[in-house]
Each structure stands twice: as C-alpha cells, then as structure tokens.
Amino acid sequence: MRRLAVLDLDGTLTPDTLGVLLVRELLARGVCEPELGREFMSNVERHHAGCPDFYTSLAEVYQSLGRAAAGVTVSTVERAAEDVWARARGRLFGFVRPLVRMLKSNGFLMALISGGPIELVHLVAYELGIDVYRAAVLDIRNSRYTGRVLQGPGLLGGKPSILRELEVLHHVRLADSLAMGNSASDAEVFRLVGLPVAFEPSEELADLAARHGWRVVDRHDVLRVLPSLLARGAEGEDSHAAR
Fold it and tell me: Do 140 and 146 meet the contact criterion of CB atoms below 8 Å apart?
C-alpha cells in the first residue's frame, strides 16, 4: 500500500489566501458585484479574526464566495485565475518545491487538499506536480456559476471525508501517511494520519498540537525536520510489511 502526503495550500505553501486574490481580480475586472465582493472580503476577515467561530465563519466565507461568483461565466473566472496565479506563484514559500521533491523521492503520493477555489488550486497542483487535488467547487449551469457551493473542504468533516475517499481510491495506508497544514480544519486530518505536521499553526491548532504531541515546524526549519520524521515513518511502514 502507498503512503500519502497531504498538503494544505493557503497559509502553508503560500502566505496568500488565493480565493481572496481571485475575488479581488474579479472586482478589478468589473465582473463581480462590488457589494458581494466586499461581503466576501469582510467574511474572510471575520473568519481570520475567529468571529464567531472557525467553522461557522468559514461557512459564511463559502456562501459569500458563491454569491460573489453568481452569474459570472466559467471562462471569465478561469482567465482571472490564470492571471492571479501568474503573479502569486512567485510568493510560494521557498521550501515548497524542495519539499515536494523530497516527498516524491520517498515514494509518497502527493495530494493537495485546499479550501480555496478549484479554479486556482488545480493550477498550483499542475505546476508543482501534485498527483491529486481537491478544493472548493461551485455549481455551474450553462457555463455560468449559480451561486451554490457544492464542496467546501474546509468545513467540518470536509477534509477527513476527502482523505477517506483518497484512502480507498489510491490504496493508501493512512497510518504511514503525512499531512501538513496550519489551521483547525487540518487537525481533523492530523487525527487520521501517522505523520501530522503543524506548519506555523493558528493558535487553536498550536494548542491541539501541544496536546497531541504533533510536530510543529515553520518555513525556516521544515526541510531540516522532515527527513527524520520521514525516516521514522518508513520504519513504521517496514514494521507493517513484516507482519
């Protein structure tokens, strides 16, 4: 069975919130209702401030993203996403590409599970050579967004559900798999894998990491810390195989 490496995106591989950059671009192009775009930005700020709580505020972010995109054509959003990524790709943390190479060389199947819009996430996954990806998906009818949100990975239970899907689809052993993220939604994934890594965690995730003994890293030490963690994971994999 394979080992899976699950990476979060916003705040983990990049300092940006890519969905915010996308809505800003739609506003700049005049294709998004200004009031709905501002509502989305306000909800993102409330979420980052922890108001009223992580999952409630995140649900509001997703709903307002759907409203902001309602009526816009898919081709318009895709072109905007390409332009956003062309600018944002240079802001990936410096460790990201070496990290992906390290994990691939250790035999991991790479997965990007992000709460951001799939129109941007798939561009990131393609550029980094990520094997599989999951992201926020908005409903489309007649080549336009309807305003409905079909999938929000960051919502309660969202990332674990995706992880279970990948476990079956790709014959993955979660006990030998790795996950790295920075927010409370990643904690749900950490509880299912053998190698959880909290990257520059939010206050809530930092508290959980201390309670559960999860490894905490930052952008400066992640490439130094991971090899020893992977070595211990490989030893665990060997012990499973010997049974």
Answer: yes
pTM beyond cutoff 0.85: yes
Helices (H), 29-53: 34-48
CATH superfamily of 3-242: HAD superfamily/HAD-like (3.40.50.1000)
pLDDT at 238 > cutoff 60: no
pLDDT band at 237 (very low <50, low <70, confident <90, very high): low
Question: pLDDT per residue over 150-193, tens digit each?
Answer: 999 999 999 999 999 999 999 999 999 999 999 999 999 999 99
Q: Which residues contact 119 (CB under 8 A, 6 or more apart)?
A: 22, 77, 78, 81
CA distance 163 to 133: 11
User: Residues 111, 124: contact at Cβ < 8 Å?
Assistant: no
**Cis geometry, peptide bond prior to residue 153 (ω within 30 degrees of 0):** no
Q: C-alpha angle with apex 98: 183 to 168, nearest 5 degrees?
A: 60
Strands (E), the chain: 3-7, 108-117, 132-141, 144-151, 178-181, 195-199, 215-217
Domain assignments of the chain as residue spans, ordered by start: 3-242
Confidence of residue 236 (pLDDT cuts 50, 70, 90): low
Nearest 5°: phi and psi at 220?
-90, -30
